[in-house]
Amino acid sequence: MSTYRRIVLASRPSAEPSPDNFRLETVDTPELQEGEILVRNEYLSLDPYMRGRMSEEKSYAAPQPLDQTMIGGTAGEVIASKNAKFAVGDKVVGALGWAETGVSDGVALRKVDIARVPLSAYLGVAGMPGMTAWYGLNQIMQPKAGETVAVSAASGAVGSVVGQLAKLKGCRVVGIAGGKEKCAYVVDELGFDACVDYKAGNLVADLAAATPNGIDAVFENVGGAGFDAALARMNAFGRIAVCGLIAGYNGEAVAVHNFSSVLTNRLTIRGFIVSEHLEFWAEGLRELAALVAGGQLKYRETIAQDLASAPDAFIGLLKGKNFGKQLVKLT
Amino acid sequence: MSTYRRIVLASRPSAEPSPDNFRLETVDTPELQEGEILVRNEYLSLDPYMRGRMSEEKSYAAPQPLDQTMIGGTAGEVIASKNAKFAVGDKVVGALGWAETGVSDGVALRKVDIARVPLSAYLGVAGMPGMTAWYGLNQIMQPKAGETVAVSAASGAVGSVVGQLAKLKGCRVVGIAGGKEKCAYVVDELGFDACVDYKAGNLVADLAAATPNGIDAVFENVGGAGFDAALARMNAFGRIAVCGLIAGYNGEAVAVHNFSSVLTNRLTIRGFIVSEHLEFWAEGLRELAALVAGGQLKYRETIAQDLASAPDAFIGLLKGKNFGKQLVKLT
Fold first, then answer.
1. Which of A146, A190, A242, B311 has the fewest other C-beta atoms within 10 Å?
2. Is A272–B262 a contact, with Cβ atoms under 8 angstroms apart?
3. Which chain A residues are Cβ-neighbours of B271 within 8 angstroms?
4. Euclidean distance between CA atoms A160 and A137, whole angstroms
5. Cβ B269–A273 below 8 Å, yes or no?
6. Chain A residues within an 8 Å CB radius of B273
7. Which residues form the Enoyl reductase (ER) domain (chains A, B) (predicted)?
8. Which residue of A has its CA nearest to B272?
């Protein structure tokens, strides 16, 4: 019988996750049942939401169970199929977790065309992170041409797409990112109008300088000081999509100090989880893939090699060590 | 030439307003021009928003100018008219400020019927505060029967209407108010299901006990600890109307600590100013007046006597010393 390697959640972190919260193990490949598909995962997606699942606190999703394969998006190839909809050799995207091999019943598995969009992009710009950007921008922020849009974690898998889509709509787009290199990428490669380096120590003044006409819409991935700085710059009737608050994911107290802006500027703030809005995915993914294929949507990937590197890569992601979409290459 | 008394803003407060921020003075009654109406104000409305206008900080409205009549809603009687739409003896509601007499061009003056609704009620439950409640509840919170609604400053002019309207919709309604007497009124007179006394010192636990099924919609008048306690009790897809953040009106730092609830519960938060939604006023005011006339909407007033008492009454309002709608009786 064949085996494969997987990573399970071994324990829950009390603050920052550490490598010993994870355990690499080898398990038997199960026998395929009627209707099932066996997939060899080529790429594993690492995303900030996984940090939330590692904790037991009440949140929008059930916690990741201990001793089970860590959840996660995957892209790979069908290597055996007892499902008429999938054939050996098909490239597929699913959520088979931190594992070299996965079994799917086909319901949450999606065949993808890699002729013009690389397989890995379906885990990033043309996948869940891209859809997250698309939904937040189009359904919550709804910016008009000429408005100013601010995006935190601007060089990341989600933020980079938010900003580029906003540029395509004719907005002034200002990113917030950590470090000169990321900010240079955001402006020079992605085409944002400006990028504020929060590590430079002048966040409030730098954001004010970069947003001379204030801010009309925010895509918030981080929370903390950057969010407060954005709140202080909001124009009347501004919209804020709250996608992530990574600054507080390890349980630190991250207070919001400029909340009064909600009243004085009559802001609308909405938190969202893109997986709850599946009715938009077909439209959004089609649009994103077309933009990638046409070269209008750029992206960058940080690719760790081998399943065993996933915990360190994930911990690095939470600290902003990645540059663009964080993936693990499994094959 | 006749004269009248008025109160002007003499100086801006640095923290809590004090009586010396105001100045009582006697001025000449102007000669009426064509199209103008002279009104003897019978009631002056005191409202928390006035605190914001006393400051120079950027807000949704221009600051109250120094040495000018303090802004404010008024109800009174036409005593002279050069405007065909208004006759001597008409009862009218307007915004003629902290003054015994006012001149209007008629544009922002509204004739009211006092046959079934007392004149003073048009400054409260059947006026701007009532409309504030109506708009926040119907346009932002949109509660369904069976949902739990929380209201801060629950015994106040706005909060008391929010809760009663929500009860009419079949919601479970929980108020937050300061002191046993106000809480008893909220439950016994207004018909709320429960009221948490924030002065009792167990705000978080008491609110949790009063909302066994969590909170689906919040009307926020205060901010601070009560708002954080409500955020911690929110259910998925909860809606929060932010009408006031009186806890921070004097410039205290009032941080929001439980903002992560916006993400984990996919909340929508919207700040609003009812005067920006005039398209709803005719419908709302008609509904409110009918409910008052029918005895379905109860209210309480705290009435200070004489214009000279307005500053102290206003300062008391900001400290929660009033009980229900704060008015000044001028005649």
1. A146
2. no
3. 262-268
4. 12
5. no
6. 266
7. 17-328
8. A266
Q: Which two tokens stand for residue B96?
A: 């003629």
**Distance separating alpha carbons of residues A328 and A41, to the nearest angstrom:** 10
Residue of A nearest to B251 (CA): A260
| Contact flag B270-A266 (C-beta cutoff 8 Å) | yes
**Per-residue model confidence (pLDDT) at position A320:** 82
Each residue's pLDDT tens digit, B230-283: 999 999 999 999 998 877 666 666 899 999 999 999 999 999 999 999 999 999
Question: Is the distance from CB of B268 to CB of B246 less than 8 angstroms?
Answer: no
Question: What six digits make up the tokens of A170?
Answer: 């004719």
Residue A201 Cα, gap to closest chain B Cα (Å):
22
Amino acid B99: pLDDT: 98
Q: Which two tokens stand for residue A121?
A: 């992009």
Q: Which homologous superfamily is B3-124+299-329 in?
A: Medium-chain alcohol dehydrogenases, catalytic domain (3.90.180.10)
CB B29 within 8 A of CB B101: yes
Min distance A84 CA to chain B CA atoms (Å): 38
In angstroms, the CA B286 to CA B292 distance is 10
Residue that the structure tokens 């402006």 belong to: A187
Q: How far is B36 from chain A (nearest CA, A)?
A: 33
pLDDT digits (tens, 9 = 90+) for B92-125: 999 999 999 999 999 999 999 999 999 999 999 9
Tokens of A99: 């594992």
Say yes or no for a CB contact (<8 Å) between B255 and A255: yes
Is A128-275 in the same CATH topology as A3-124+300-329? no
Pick A3-124+300-329's CATH classification: 3.30.420.40, 1.20.1050.10, 2.10.260.10, 3.90.180.10: 3.90.180.10
Instruction: List chain A domain ranges.
Output: 3-124+300-329, 128-275
Look at residue A206 in the predicted model and tell me its pLDDT.
97
Cα(A106)–Cα(B148) distance, integer angstroms: 40
Residues of B contacting chain A (CB within 8 angstroms)? 52, 58-60, 223, 236, 242-245, 248, 253-257, 259-260, 262-273, 276
The answer to whether residue B126 scores a pLDDT higher than 70 is yes
Does residue A194 carry a pLDDT above 70? yes
Q: How confident is the model at residue B91 (pLDDT cuts 50, 70, 90)?
A: very high
In angstroms, what separates the C-alpha of B246 from chain A's closest C-alpha? 10
Q: Confirm or reject CATH 3.40.50.720 for domain B128-275, answering yes or no.
A: yes
**Residues B289-315: tens digit of each pLDDT:** 999 999 999 999 999 999 999 999 999
CB A70 within 8 A of CB A96: no
Q: How confident is the model at residue A187, as a pLDDT?
A: 98
The amino acid occupying position B264 is T
